[in-house]
Amino acid sequence: MIKILYHLIVLFLTINLIWYLFREKQFWAQVSTAIVLVMFLLRLFLIK
Amino acid sequence: MPIKTKIKKYHIIAVGLFGLAALLCGLTGVRFKSMHQKDTFYPSAGLFRQLKLSDYFPALADTPGDTDVYCFKGDERGGNLLILGGTHPNEPAGFITAVLLLENISVTQGTVFIVPQANLSGFTHNDPFEGNPQKFSLVTPGGLRWFRFGSRLTNPIHQWPDPTLFTNAAGQALSGAEVRNLNRSYPGKENGHLTEKIAFGIVNLITEEAIDLSIDLHEAAPEYPVVNAIVFHENSAELAAIASMSLQMEGLDIRMEASPPSLRGLSHREWGDFTDSMAILLETANPSHGRLKGKPTEALITEGKDPNYVKAARLGMLFVPYGEEGIPIDERVARHLAAVEALVTGLQELDPDLVIEIEDFPAAPTVEERGIGLYLHSPK
């Protein structure tokens, strides 16, 4: 159960990041978002 | 009414960056996943049978904690020995000593059980923020053999989340992350976390196979006081003394450390308390394990050379002699081999019924002089 909850939280934050990536107009803010997104994608797919 | 979306420049950049993030994720993912590929071992012709830890605790079957157990049995009855490597997968001398033994020995009297990767899950990842290499190689006559350099702890993918405080089955309260440390989880719990189940399986193995002597192979930082040491439970104090004297006579400086009765959850304490086995833990000095190390590289793991440790030795901050030549893995493995041999010999001195005759035991001086590779099977 706790793993599903964890997945849901990470999924929610990942979708938020992607949404932010496409709405953000400043280039460097987009780059920062993309860098953070890498970590979230790895966590989402439980790659460690 | 159709929805009109104007594609702006920042949308195109977002698509590009998203693609780049996905690519980076894929590339790093491949590297991370490579740690999940199992190491290949080549057991000697003397192997009697290969088992799994789940044979002693079925709940471990098909879990990342189920690991191989190699059994070498002689024709004559004698003592039963367990050698455990890879309790901490970032302490390679313990792991490689076990591999070296399982790829060489044959037993004519008594039984030897070898578990080279006690915490198999710990081999599937690195310690975060340490920058350690994922693998290291050793030269054999037929080419390079690669081995994983893992983490001290079980992979959080396999056991999560950590509690704030972990109280182990022996009642010792520890920091939360120690819940994934196999050598803090003994005697284990039948219904506990994965690491506690592994510990439970190992204790079951010791009990079911009536192991007389259990040896847990480790490494520690040169600045750690318990290093180049035999850590012994009080039930094996006499044996440790015999082995220590024998090693000192061979010119191998080794200290004796009594297992503290109040330090619970460790192999040298709980194996002795919860089973009839004599419990021993061996430590060698590994600079790649220490806090004073420089860049953690594959060379540091195998050659054990680090200028910081040379300085520390000059300042008298280390518990082992350390020079420019470092402490190579050949020397660390040779120390473990010499200690195991001395303990096996000591066991039969204590009780003539517990003779364990091992043939083709890799000779410690040769390993130190000519390298581990000489005794390792060539890669296929």
Describe the structure.
The complex is a heterodimer of chains A (48) and B (380). Chain A is built from 2 helices and no strands. Chain A is mainly alpha-helical and 48 residues long. Chain A has one domain. The longest helix of chain A has 22 residues. Chain A is elongated, with a radius of gyration of 12 Å. Chain B is of the alpha/beta class and 380 residues long. Chain B contains 9 helices and 13 strands. In chain B, strands 1, 2, 3, 4, 9, 10, 11, 12 and 13 form a 9-stranded mixed sheet that branches. Chain B has a two-stranded antiparallel ribbon with strand order 5-6. A two-stranded antiparallel sheet of chain B has the order 7-8.
Sum up the overall morphology of chain A in one term: elongated
Largest sheet of chain B: 9 strands, mixed
- Please state roughly what percent of the residues of chain A sit in beta strands, choosing from under 5%, 5-15%, 15-25%, 25-35%, 35-45% or over 45%: under 5%
The parts of chain A where pLDDT drops under 50 for at least 5 residues are none
Question: What is the averaged pLDDT score of chain A?
Answer: 94
The gross shape of chain B turns out to be globular
> How many domains of chain A, as an integer?
1
CATH architecture of chain B: 3-Layer(aba) Sandwich
The SSE string of chain A, one letter per element, is HH
Structural class category of chain A? mainly alpha
